[in-house]
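Feature request disguised as a bug report, sorry. It would help if multi-protein outputs had a clear separator. Right now it looks like this:
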Amino acid sequence: MQKGIKVTTAGLWAAVPALLLLFGSCRTEESRQARSIRQAQKTQAELEKLLTGGDFGEDSRYALVKQIAQAMMAARDYRTLVIFLTDWVEKNPDDKYNAYWLLMTANAYLENDARPVARYYLERIIRNYPDLMVQGQSVHFLCLQNLIRISETSENRITYFNQLISQFPNNVNITEIYYRLALEYENEGEWDQALKTFALFLNRADAQSIQIQGRPNAYASAKQLIDFSNSSKDWTFASLAELKAAVTTAINKYDWRALDKYKSKVNFFAMSWRQDESDENAQNSFSMHSYMRGNKIHCSDELDPSSTPTEAYFRTWGWSNRYVNVWYLYFRKVNFPSDPSVHGRWEWAGIYFGEKL
């Protein structure tokens, strides 16, 4: 006798009512959906017939078109929606709500992730149609928000950000927009415009307190850039080798004046490895004189192995008998494309106290 699950005739007949109930509920659900679709189609057809056959005022006609469009959106019938709205705009060029109908068209394409087509309609609205307030919202403002979100190039986002600033200064946080616009100018290599826009950002009253998503140190980074731009930059060296050699010679000669001269005059920091460069007490301006006097200072022959093509760490020791004895001098390649004569040179940008973690 074959082993397995035994199904008796009585058991099978006992299961029939449950199966019939299941199939019946599925058919009921399908019939409900079918009835719902047929009813929606019937209602839509009646509305369209009413729309084309009636002589309505502008507001009544707007309500009807919107009701038809929303019914199509609710049914996710985006293809029919696009055909209906674009056909309406073409046949009714004087409808003052055409910008809104095209915005709905763009949204339908966005729902289907057809961004290039959506962008075409959004830009068409801004170029060819006057702005329109619908339910308390500006159509042009909504278009610009969408364009910024879906745009794939900094060049386009620069255009849209500038339009937001000039046309809707009260609808957006101008401080954040200035910062993001400056970043887009950087991406495009428009360095002068980037610096001007970062300066506009820093001059805003809330620049120091604003929280910008993805940019936790927005104020500090912008300030460092502007401060560097406004400085003499005369402490930089043509190469890392020249900088290391000059610092080594000054340490060996206990020439604190030379070391003070080599230190960056902007954004120089001195901190422990656990601190962040943006910490208030990390930004230090001090003379090397008091730390060299009476101490026997040494420095490594080579840079630390963790150094990279843009950053270098130089281990030194003997700075203090009472406090932290080991200092790592931090050298950095200058990243300032706005001034080709400085960009790519090297600077002594800071000090890390203690052994590397």
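(second protein starts here, but nothing in the output says so)
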Amino acid sequence: MEPELTRIAEPTKGQAKPRLTSLIHLINAEMLKACHAELKGNKAVGVDKVTKEEYGQNLDANIEDLLGRMKRWAYRPLPVRRTYIPKAGTDKMRPLGILAYEDKLVQMAVSKILNGIYEEEFLDNSFGFRPGRGQHDALKLLDWLIANKPVNYIVDADIKGFFDNVDHDWVMKFLGHRIADTNLLRLIKRFLIAGIMEDGQLQKSEVGVPQGGNISPILSNIYLHYALDLWFEKVVRKRCKGAAYIVRFADDFACCFEYKEDAEAFLGLLTERLAEFKLEVAVEKTKILAFGRRAHAEARREGKTTHGTFDFLGFTHYCSKSRHGRFRAKRQTSKKKLRAKLAEFTEWIKKNRHMPMHEIMKMVESKLRGHYLYYGITDNYQAMNRYKRAVIRLLFKWLNLRSQKRSYTWEQFNKIIERFKLPNPKVMITIWELRLPSLYIP
């Protein structure tokens, strides 16, 4: 399977980029079985209520039946079951789409084909939903640009409800640039219009891609590749008087400019550009701020610590200096993310405080290590330490509420913490270690 997917990308390299005409045959028994093996078995079920274990009990026959229905176009994706999860840092809920099991298999297969085609197309400043590229890589590139390029202004922009507003017609037009296989395009269209099941009521899905769908990440990346990345590279940067850069992870992006007039012109054009593709800027979350070496020097002359901060990928970025007195951009866990993480922990300990102490502490250790794996980045030690201290305070509060009588004093509880040896914060990611060999750094 892998060699075939690799060969898909080969014609896309170089200058000649022919439209690909024969792709859907790649969705065969071998690929679907591989997808079945990759899917996790503990995920929530869709409207079919079929689990991975149940489907796998008669896997060969089920796959054969699925392929037969696909060949005669009797296979139709089932509606996506909609549920809601808390939205980080707010009291709002985020919609999540849960697919039927067969739809998960087919969508994963389609996403593998699309990734095989588009991985060679995507620009190096794009990091979301791509193999070998993660949030830390995006943060490293942004830090490198601010430190080494003439960056004086940041446009901190946000797309309003991106996943809910992706336009289906534009998705199909974008796919048509590289794909001429009408059968594959027809299958993707069926997924887009499969509908949504919520509280037993079927709703049409005329716009948007469900967060949680296997095909949604790659479709979203393709959408923003054409709507934002290529436009910034081929139009915006050429119009700018000075340097201009963009770093994007999924629908979260930060733009760097040398001159304020370039930043202002871009923000005006961005509103028009997104509107063309049925998207809009979240005005209340979008701003231009002075940021970088020059902005930091001006702030210090005015007696300020910094001109301003911006949030990107869960971190608040601010201007500072190294131990040697040189300018450096630094980052710490954003207040919004810290509040959200602590709210999430509070809900967990409230529901599970009845568990034996050793089980609670084992889970707390796992949660702390998971937090350090993402937020353990250069300059963020103190914020991680604050998170650990807050977690311990929440443990003390809720474990003392397991009964009407107070269970522990702080002295007793500290001895328990010492006995279980909860992990201390640790810097796991060095911000200036660029891992990618070929970066978007003109």
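Even a blank line would do. Unrelated, but nice: The chain has a mean pLDDT of 90.
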